[in-house]
Specification:
By secondary structure, the chain is of the alpha/beta class. The protein contains 24 helices and ten strands. Helix 4 packs across helix 5.
């Protein structure tokens, strides 16, 4: 699902590609002013921009954070009616109204997220209900003395708002997961819709008109700017320190919390960021359509649209919503116009796209690229497939005590060897201890074998790979740390890091939808596995290292493929080392060094797997 993202990432790294992006930007900027004949297509492109922005908002919640929502329409309606009220009643310029609509959407998202807290949840819920009741009582007192201050003009509306405020105050929305969260967001949107359907200020069910003298070009550029800004926000967020936390929360909340991720903060952040994206897109949409009604603005079809866009384009990818918006406009404007059927045709198209393209259009492009690569580089692909087998044979020979002839060669770049390492620095501290002596001998032999295979960089995958904990790669040029065991002494680690390879993999992983964080090696606490892998394999500092930890087993497999690809591109010959504990027990039993051993055959089999 990440072919386009990877392609764009590679394009941007080349001068010719940068020139192509600049040309595309110039074309989009000049498109509305090339002539009257382009007006229709300018409107189509504007529609693509707006729906792609809506797709970004939904994808940020569901695709990257796992918050499946069917309440997008609440931000569409609130933002659209904010523009209408600001322009119609107060004479505010429409573009200022659009900004106000985004602010209202963000505030409403924050209002929904506010009651959540990982601590004192019951107390905060009580406070939320008390605040709702106090506001309602205050409002009733005001209109009792001044009936003209009742902006709602209906006892029904006031009661609905009272119940709604109590609902918001009592419901820890972001504590819900899966279908419960989806249904709750839909119910909230339906409750807001019922208020607007009866509110005379907004014309009740008849809606309002948004007076505007904006041109097609202005609306086009507004849509283009909003899409560019939302894309940059998502791109930045995925590459920030929050990017890894997003996918960790999506994959496994309990595991994410176990490794120190603030679930409340991550969910609140994406909730509040996605709302103004949807609000801005909706504001421009209704400025263009001029009229807005509650049944249209708060319709569940908005959620259906964004699900179609994101799933068709590629869920959990940066460029999926853009591709999906293009497909959506094609289906809605051309297919529906040709065949008729309205929403039914759109639904049939959605089902067919999901059946034909289960991973979205971006996934199809990835598959086509892999097929083309195999056709162009058939021999190289075969060679790459043989590398893991070659590495296993090499390691088997090492463990058995034999070594292949000196000068054994492999491909110019990529994986040339692999090994499993019980990652404990203790064998180095006490090489005379019988249980550790054999481990020390084996790992020293692995280091010699890496030298004979002319390995440039050793990639160490640190275990355990906790499901849901986002992958991290140590960044920087060097690592200088030490390990101290009170009864055995101190063991130091001086490793040179392969910064270009680490940075290339981080960029490629994030472009492929795997949120990988680069962690500064100078500030990050380093576990004993890192020290052991470096000291046991490379006591003479002959190799450079890349240390990668965290992530799910799926992340590990995909990262392995990215390491292979980026190493080949940089001409690096790399050896992959899986470094793990000797036991799977959370707290291994204490033992004296001479009695140390593998806990059980089952634990050993688990570690090897």
């Amino acid at each position: 699902m990440t072919g386009i993202a990877g392609a764009i990432d590679r394009i941007l790294s080349r001068p010719v590609g940068i020139g192509a992006i600049i040309v595309l930007g110039v074309v989009l900027l000049l498109f509305p002013i090339v002539g009257e004949s382009a007006r229709y297509f300018a409107v189509l492109l504007m529609t693509v921009f707006l729906f792609a922005t809506l797709g970004h908002a939904w994808n940020l919640l569901a695709g990257f954070c796992g918050l499946l929502t069917f309440g997008t329409q609440v931000y569409v309606g609130l933002s659209g009616f904010t523009v209408a009220i600001a322009v119609y009643y107060f004479g505010v310029p429409v573009w200022v109204g659009a900004v106000l609509g985004a602010i209202v959407a963000a505030l409403f998202a924050w209002l929904q997220a506010m009651p959540i807290s990982d601590r004192n949840l019951r107390r905060n819920t009580t406070i939320g209900v008390i605040i709702a009741l106090a506001l309602w009582a205050f409002y009733e007192i005001i209109i009792a003395f001044n009936p003209g201050a009742d902006v709602f003009g209906s006892n029904y509306i006031r009661r609905v708002i009272l119940l709604f405020c109590i609902f918001l105050g009592a419901l820890p929305l972001l504590k819900l997961q899966g279908a419960y969260f989806a249904v709750a967001t839909w119910l909230i949107a339906a409750a807001v819709a019922s208020i607007f359907n009866e509110w005379q200020v907004v014309g009740a069910g008849g809606g309002m008109t948004i007076p505007s003298d904006t041109s097609i070009a202005e609306r086009y550029y507004a849509g283009l700017i909003i899409l560019a800004a939302s894309t940059l926000v998502v791109w930045w967020l995925l590459r920030s320190r929050y990017g890894a936390a997003l996918t960790a929360v999506r994959d496994d909340e309990e595991a994410a919390a176990a490794v120190g991720i603030d679930i409340r903060r991550v969910k609140t952040m994406v909730f509040v960021i996605s709302a103004p994206m949807a609000g801005l897109a909706a504001a421009v949409y209704y400025i263009d359509t001029v009229t807005i009604t509650p049944p249209d603005a708060f319709s569940i079809r908005w959620s259906a649209y964004v699900v179609f866009i994101v799933v068709a384009g590629g869920m959990g990818t940066l460029w999926g919503p853009v591709v999906g918006a293009v497909l959506f406009v094609i289906v809605q404007r051309f297919l529906v116009g040709f065949w008729g059927g309205g929403e039914l045709t759109l639904g049939i198209a959605a089902v067919l796209l999901i059946l034909i393209l289960p991973r979205g259009a971006v996934g199809l492009i990835t598959d086509l690229k892999l097929w083309a690569a195999k056709r162009r580089h058939g021999a190289r692909a075969v060679q790459s497939q043989e590398q893991p087998a070659m590495a296993r044979r090499a390691f088997a020979e090492l463990v058995g005590g034999s070594t292949p002839p000196r000068g054994t060669s492999g491909p110019r770049g990529g994986v040339v060897a692999a090994a499993l390492l019980p990652a404990s620095p203790l064998p180095t501290l006490r090489p005379d201890n019988p249980p550790w002596k054999e481990l020390s001998r084996a790992t020293t032999a692995v280091g010699r074998q890496f030298s004979e295979l002319r390995v440039d960089t050793v990639v160490v995958l640190l275990a355990p790979w906790v499901g849901g904990a986002a992958p991290r790669i140590l960044s920087g040029n060097s690592l200088r740390v030490s390990f101290r065991e009170p009864s055995l002494g101190t063991f130091g680690c001086r490793a040179d890091l392969d910064a270009p390879l680490a940075e290339a993999v981080i960029r490629a992983a994030n472009a492929h939808g795997i949120a990988v964080a680069g962690v500064d090696a100078l500030t990050q606490p380093v576990e004993g596995s890192v020290i052991a892998a470096n000291g046991l394999i490379d006591p003479e500092s002959a190799f450079r290292f890349v240390f990668c930890s965290g992530g799910s087993s799926t992340d590990a497999a995909e990262l392995g493929a990215l390491f292979q690809r980026e190493a080949a591109a940089l001409g690096r010959r790399i050896a992959v080392v899986g470094a793990g504990a000797l036991s799977t027990a959370p707290v291994p039993a204490m033992t004296i060094p001479s009695h140390d051993a593998i806990g059980s055959a089952a634990e050993d089999a688990h570690n090897r797997k």
